[in-house]
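User: Can you model how flavin-adenine dinucleotide sits in this protein?
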Amino acid sequence: MTDQLLNERDLDFLLFDVLKADSLCERKAFSDHNRESLTAALQTAAGIAREYLLPHNRLLDEDEPQFDGKTVSIRPEVKQAMTAIADAGFLAGRESQEEGGIALPETVMLACMAYFMAANPSTSGYPFLTMAAARLLKNFGSDSLKEHFLPHMQSGRFSGTMALTEPQAGSSLADITTKATPADDGTYRIKGHKIYISGGDHELTDNIVHMVLAKIEGAPPGVKGISLFVVPKFLLQEDGSLGERNDVALAGLFHKLGYRGTTSTALNFGEKGCCVGYLIGEPHQGLKYMFQMMNEARLGVGLGAASIGYRGYMLSLDYAKGRPQGRPAASRDPLAAPVNIIEHADVRRMLLAQKAYCEGALALTLYGGRLVDDISSAPQAEAEEAQTLLDLLTPIMKAWPSEYGVKANDLAIQVYGGAGYTREYPVEQCWRDNRLNPIHEGTNGIQALDLLGRKVWQEKGRGLTILHKRIQNTLSSAPPELEVEVKKLDALIKQVAAATASIGAAMQQAGPDVALSNAASYLHLVGHTTVAWLWLMQAAEAQHLLKTTDASNEEAVSFYSGKLQACRFFYRHELPLVQRDVDLLMSGDTTTMDMQANWF
Ligand SMILES: Cc1cc2nc3c(=O)[nH]c(=O)nc-3n(C[C@H](O)[C@H](O)[C@H](O)COP(=O)(O)OP(=O)(O)OC[C@H]3O[C@@H](n4cnc5c(N)ncnc54)[C@H](O)[C@@H]3O)c2cc1C
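Assistant: Here's the modeled complex, given as structure tokens:
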């Protein structure tokens, strides 16, 4: 079994040739870095992924965390991996050096995280949740909260969680019922039940810092009444040392299809009436704060899905190169040696689809990282434009890779044939792990509603205007060899504009329920358009580099040729599929709305 997690050559191409990540080092925020230091960070991440994460990926899947009624036990390799990630500085990878970090651009940070996710998504879950919780605290917490918790989260001594979901409130967070009652000392008493909380209990760290959504008594109904609290597993003493156990109890662990190594917990807050919570920021602003973290988390979910998809692609590619079976259709000699299955066009179709999906999804999410960097470091106008575009694309960056990452893993199983369906081979685990991604951090259905119900119309549609402008720039600078793809994408963006206008009109005339009933098709249409754009960007760069590469450099020629072929595949085999979406959207199809529950 290959230990290739991602194609390092591809990552290098995406980061430095396509996204020009090294140009970020010219900006003050990243001036401590240069191409060499960014590459060193990537190599460190790849090394940790191979040495500390990959070896126990399968073991953890087979030997998942256990709860004996008192404590949760997890294989020791998980802690060793978390320590390696923390010791290399990745937990504070995004923070400036003054803040104890290594100030990596998000574009590169995401690429590092892609290695971890490809190697072992379950173990990666603990540090990733901790990073996200720490950033939430850093951005919105009081100085005192930051002082007490942040350094320990950034060093890996404490871990973090996101505690939003309740049994009756998953997609609809407006319906949470967890209560927060003010206490005399300025803290709050939290009472309620949360489910599916990842990393919600374990013995991997000295403390667990839960970011909990709750409603302060008397708060306005719905999302406007949600506040955010820090609820530690262990309270801290005045001097910062660990104090008594807080009133947060593990009710039990869920047993999942995949991602088995990340504990999935049902937590009871305040069963004894003394669960202490500390308000973050202002009352009733919790969802706004949480959304900042969720947007980062959504990009992270898309990246994870792309990475697990990519790992399955690497595995099935390796398998296809070494599995002899069958002969070319034209061969009539039954005694001729069988060929490796990669020689069959249908197997190449499945590999090309995986390549197009996974490299496309990785490009999409790394582009998201580039937008995050532009928001934090570009001149104001460019930063504002990046923010508007990131807001628009966040649901796509979550949903497209998670839909197509799973499809890629499905194809990886198919490439392996019967072996792919057995637990003796690794690709079924990729599929099981990846199957979570369309569900959590807002289901893909909710992402579609977010895109079509909110994001597209924000700032009078400015996000889509920016996207069109950027696509046009790529079209006008593409080399003549890509003329066919340029024409197709040019036609498609006009269809996106027409479909959007048509839905806008339906919104006015028929109301949001009808107008949004084909939101999934809209997400698919804009998702495919965006990925087609990123493929054109890659192909243009590959074409340019191919012209300037010495023909004797076989490795480089093959790499660029592969990029061009994957782009062609996406435009010929995938892009025509969105015509169905265009037709449904333009005709205002109401088949799903008109179906009645009692007709099923
Ligand atoms: C392994 C795992 C880890 C998780 N980790 C965490 C975590 O760390 N923290 C946390 O807080 N939560 C976590 N979750 C919860 C996760 O975010 C929710 O499961 C998810 O948001 C969906 O909520 P639900 O399960 O209640 O499904 P529901 O909300 O009941 O949705 C069921 C179906 O109905 C659809 N649906 C619901 N409402 C609408 C609507 N208005 N319009 C159209 N369709 C709709 C959904 O798209 C979905 O297909 C995790 C879940 C899992 C499985």
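A couple of observations from the model: The first strand starts at residue 66 and ends at 67. The pocket of flavin-adenine dinucleotide is lined by residues 161-165, 170-171, 196-198, 256, 259, 264, 436, 439-443, 445-446, 449 (CB under 6 Å).
User: Helpful, thanks.
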